[in-house]
Specification:
By secondary structure, the chain is of the alpha+beta class. It contains 3 helices and 4 strands.
């Protein structure tokens, strides 16, 4: 999944304190909170759900959707550190 990791790396390097992200289709509307959240689109990454599931399975991200149906995740610090290098 080099394409997804490259985009995540670019995002973390630009905004090093952000850890949250959502995965969306470009045609969907998402009401962003008052803080920065990265967005990754299905149209830009083949099999995005599977890639995110792998990251979750190995403990690099955790599901943060709560009661929402929006696929929202938080990066663990070791993953953010890796991406920021």
């Amino acid at each position: 999944m080099p394409d997804l990791l490259a985009e995540m790396r670019e995002d973390i390097q630009q905004f090093p304190l952000c850890r949250e992200f959502v995965i969306l289709k470009k045609m969907w509307v998402f009401c962003y909170p008052d803080r920065r959240i990265f967005t990754y689109f299905y149209e830009d990454h083949d099999e995005l759900d599977s890639k995110v599931q792998i990251l979750e399975n190995v403990g690099l991200i955790r599901d943060a959707r709560g009661d929402s149906n929006v696929a929202r995740f938080v990066m663990e610090e070791r993953f953010a550190d890796y991406l920021g290098k």
